[in-house]
Design brief:
- The complex is a heterodimer of chains A (244) and B (262).
- Chain A is α/β, with parallel strands linked by helices and 244 residues long.
- Chain A is 34% helix and 25% strand.
- Chain B is 85% helix and 0% strand.
- In chain B, helix 5 crosses helix 11.
- Chain B is globular.
- The relative contact order of chain B is 0.12.
- Classes of the chains: A alpha/beta (244), B mainly alpha (262).
- Chains A and B meet through helix 2 of A and helix 1 and helix 4 of B.
């Protein structure tokens, strides 16, 4: 199948007078890792939230597997979401939180608890979430994203707050998922990290997707050798109004 | 339906373990037990508890509810990213907050009575007291839920919560008294009745006072009230008013929740 897993077309969203997304078009291809990059306030999080159905777009549409995202919930069973470092009910344990998600998703899905072992979370999962460090909570977050072996992983700043070892283990897990044919959509402020992970890049600037293509293509267009430099070039060009 | 129960059961677990909820139960146990000891008369203790319930239950329900839901925002987002629908999710969130608070109130106030004996002389009035508290809990957690969904800014939301509580507990009665004083020459019993039905705390107050033959303390107005509430029609209207007070914020909250951009 050559149909992209996610197709975003002419997606617009305003919050009051602020146009956060202005006719964003992009495809997320199957079995690839796409990095969504852009300066703060470029619309990355809004794009992700629209994909998850958390935010309703004003116009345009998002297709997941060819099916329009329009308020029905079943398509989300194919998605694993890892939000930015989040505060969860402080009196629940990690194990309870995971059990709750398993409960909501119902039986019949293969569980992937590999990250619990990789991060050695067994004892931490028995403690209330409020006593866990930010990094440990982020690991619990990661476990929840991968738990149901989803077809599409949506990871918002996945390595924020993780130590180098955990961070590299998580990256291995992400690359492993791609190896299994999963599709990944990832944001990060750490360009070196995305360089390691991404096949494709979507560059958002002021609510527009000014570049969508492969990482190599981006480097070629900008004449830079690293993603960080390439993005810096894009941002400079964007600001003087000659986006690629 | 299933999703409602699942969300409700886990969220309720979280709420029940909260220190504030434990303090809430403890407070009612202490006050109720103290009143029972000092007065030595369950009916007198219940009369004193009326004011405590009218004051504290709405306050705790609306403030705890608002703060809890603002803190749960990211949790709700995570759950909405799962294959669940918003309508059921809303039901789970509202009930997961309301049921533990209502149970805490019933246990805190009911337990001391249970230990000191409930008999025919105070059983019915205790039931009215508990039911009024539960209904007030349902109303004020619904308002809290609505506020937490509608106001992005948590300080404004919390301010509005306290404002609404003050309005219904303190300001409203002041305004009613003012109206009564200004129009003292007119016969206002029916207008008063209408004003009372417009405020859930007043409905609860009158319902409870009438149970304790307190109507005698309210003079002619009391007699009109007694007449009104004593009849089946009055009781039905009262129940309908309370049901509306629960349903209106719950439905408005549901609408806001389904439209909200998280």
């Amino acid at each position: 199948m050559n149909q992209p897993l996610v197709r975003v077309s002419a997606l617009c969203k305003k919050f009051g007078a602020l146009e956060v997304l202005r006719a964003v078009d992009l495809d997320v291809r199957r079995g690839r890792v796409m990095a969504v990059v852009g300066p703060n306030g470029a619309g990355k999080t809004t794009l992700i939230k629209a994909l998850l159905g958390l935010t309703r777009p004003d116009s345009g549409e998002i297709l997941v597997n060819g099916v329009r995202v329009d308020g029905r919930e079943s398509y989300r069973s194919r998605i694993g979401y890892m939000p930015q470092i989040a505060r969860y009910p402080e009196n629940l344990t990690g194990a309870e939180l995971i059990a709750m998600l398993e409960n909501l998703r119902g039986a019949g899905v293969t569980r992937d608890r590999e990250l619990v072992d990789i991060f050695a979370l067994d004892s931490a999962l028995e403690k209330p979430l409020r006593v866990l460090s930010g990094g440990t909570r982020q690991k619990v977050n990661a476990v929840m994203a991968f738990l149901f072996s989803p077809e599409l992983l949506v990871l918002d700043e996945p390595t924020a707050g993780l130590d180098p070892l955990s961070s590299s283990m998580l990256k291995d897990k992400i690359l492993g998922a791609r190896g299994d044919g999963k599709t990944v959509l990832v944001t990060s402020h750490v360009m070196n990290e995305l360089e390691e992970l991404a096949d494709d890049v979507a560059f958002l600037l002021e609510g527009r997707a000014t570049f969508v293509g492969t990482l190599d293509e981006l480097k070629r267009i900008t004449g830079q050798r690293t993603l960080e430099r390439a993005i810096a070039t894009m941002m400079r060009r964007g600001w003087i109004g000659e986006a690629a | 339906m299933n999703t409602i129960l699942k969300v409700l059961s886990y969220q309720a677990r979280d709420v029940v373990r909260s220190r504030w909820l434990i303090a809430y139960v403890g407070f009612f146990v202490l006050v109720t037990d103290g009143l029972l000891r000092f007065s030595g008369d369950p009916v007198k203790a219940q009369l004193s508890l009326i004011s405590v319930v009218l004051f504290l239950v709405p306050l705790v329900s609306i403030v705890f509810g608002t703060v809890y839901l603002y803190n749960a925002r990211e949790f709700i987002e995570l759950l909405l990213a799962q294959p669940v629908n918003r309508r059921q999710m809303y039901g789970g969130v509202y009930l997961g907050l309301t049921i533990p608070l209502a149970l805490a109130f019933v246990c805190g106030l009911g337990a001391p009575f249970l230990f000191r004996g409930i008999d025919a002389s105070n059983g019915a009035s205790l039931a009215v007291l508990l039911a009024s508290g539960v209904v007030l809990t349902c109303i004020f957690t619904a308002i809290a839920t609505l506020l937490a969904i509608r106001c992005e800014d948590r300080l404004r939301g919390l301010g509005a919560a306290i404002g609404i509580w003050m309005l219904l507990t303190v300001v409203y009665d002041g305004v009613v008294l003012f109206i009564l004083a200004v129009f003292a020459d007119h016969s206002l019993e029916h207008a008063t009745l209408g004003l009372m039905l417009a405020n859930p705390i007043d409905i609860a107050r009158v319902t409870m006072l009438l149970r304790f033959d307190g109507a005698a303390m309210m003079g002619y107005t009391g007699a009109v009230f007694l007449d009104f509430f004593g009849k089946a029609q009055g009781a039905l209207i009262t129940l309908a008013a309370l049901a509306l007070w629960v349903a209106a914020p719950v439905m408005l909250g549901l609408r806001a929740f389904q439209r909200k951009d998280f």
